[in-house]
Amino acid sequence: MMETLQRALNEALADEYKARAIYRLILSRFGAVRPFVNIVESEERHIQALLPLFRKYDIPIPVDDWEQRVEIPASLQAACRAGVEAEIENAEMYQRLLASTRDYPDVQRVFLNLQQASQENHLPAFQRCAERHADSESDYGMARNIDLNHPIEPQTVLSHPGRGKHQRSGRGGHRRGICRNPSSHPGGNENSTSRGINHD
């Protein structure tokens, strides 16, 4: 059981590490552009929300070496599109991790908060970003078979245990456009807060 918990925490932390590294590099290349300038701070808070769980369960905290392992998209529009896809995959990852950590309510609370931040704040922010920088490739979502306006719903894993069994690794998966991923949900706010954790 502890091995399952360790794997879940490691996967979640690696995904947040990777996102932070990518968004830092994007800011380094393109300057203090939104939503990256806000969401990179949110990723830091997500990491800080996960670390106490490692300490509580005496699990070694993995080293963050992601800035040496990732590449960034060549354009700001591609970066926003990658952000859309990554946030969708991130929510799917947390759905799966929620299903595997049912015996740990404290872990579930953190995972659920982070999943909600991804879907309710980060994804809409990246979707708006992609629209602002739209070009002739505006059919990107269709080409990649991704419905950018209908992400999965947070919390469904809690009442539907059969879901979330695909073995992707969230923003750490093969896509991310980088080795994570945004639209125009009205009301999405990369600076909002939810359930006790600040979510940008």
Structural class: mainly alpha
Q: Overall pLDDT, averaged?
A: 76
Shape: globular
Number of individual domains:
1
User: What is the CATH topology assignment?
Assistant: Ferritin
* Architecture (CATH level 2) name: Up-down Bundle
CATH homologous superfamily identity: Ferritin, core subunit, four-helix bundle
Note the main attributes of this structure:
globular, two-stranded antiparallel sheet, Ferritin, mainly alpha, 200 residues
Indicate the topology:
Elements: H1 2-30, H2 36-56, H3 76-100, H4 105-132, H5 140-143, H6 156-159, E1 193-194, E2 197-198
Antiparallel strand pairs: 1-2
Helix pairs in contact: 1-2, 1-3, 2-4, 3-4
Task: Summarize the model shown.
The protein has 200 residues and is an all-alpha fold.
Q: How would you sum up this structure, described in words?
A:
By secondary structure, this protein is mostly helical. The chain has a single domain (2-198), classed as Ferritin (Up-down Bundle). The chain has six helices and two strands, in the order ααααααββ. A two-stranded antiparallel ribbon has the order 1-2. Helix 1 (2-30) packs antiparallel against helix 2, helix 1 (2-30) runs antiparallel to helix 3 and helix 3 (76-100) runs antiparallel to helix 4 (105-132). The termini are far apart.
